[in-house]
């Protein structure tokens, strides 16, 4: 027996959560504006792989397979936040070096696309505190099926599909705007937002650790 009403509530909650701008959304928008649709799609692949890893760890904790150490998570969050700050500065560096952004859009080579996947994964995995979110969020909807395994599978698939769908919308919209001024503005705003999010992550992780 599958509870479609509860599942719909889960799906709606995920849409609201994923639509809220965060490091992943900001990065996908930035890559779409500066490097084109294919680069942004590769970024989405990387971020989604990171989500699967975090969900997998969360389910292992929920099913009692592994334990979780708050201080260890705080240390990893600090490292992840520092990487987000580093990535923000790399955007600012790229912005200074590029004068005709609209001319090189959609021209990322294979190596560049792999780099975007790696960057997407690293930024996606950069906040292991998401494990705690999944631990607290998923169990609320385990009632969608009688078996927890079936419920976890259904919820994970739903998350992955919605994650791809929402981020692909961001990727498509920002990749279609080719005005150099808009691209530069998007890159600048992306860098500043990532700097802010990274700084908040550093402060919070240090406070949590101590």
From TrEMBL:
Transmembrane intervals: 6-29, 41-66, 72-92, 150-173, 185-207
Signal peptide (residue range): none
Pfam families with a match to the protein in the record: LysE
Keyword check for Transmembrane: yes
Record's subcellular location: Cell membrane
Keywords: Cell membrane, Membrane, Transmembrane, Transmembrane helix
Protein name: Threonine/homoserine/homoserine lactone efflux protein
InterPro entries for the chain: LeuE-type (IPR001123)
Membrane topology field: Multi-pass membrane protein
GO CC entries: plasma membrane
Molecular-function GO term, any one: amino acid transmembrane transporter activity
UniProt entry tagged with the keyword Cell inner membrane: no
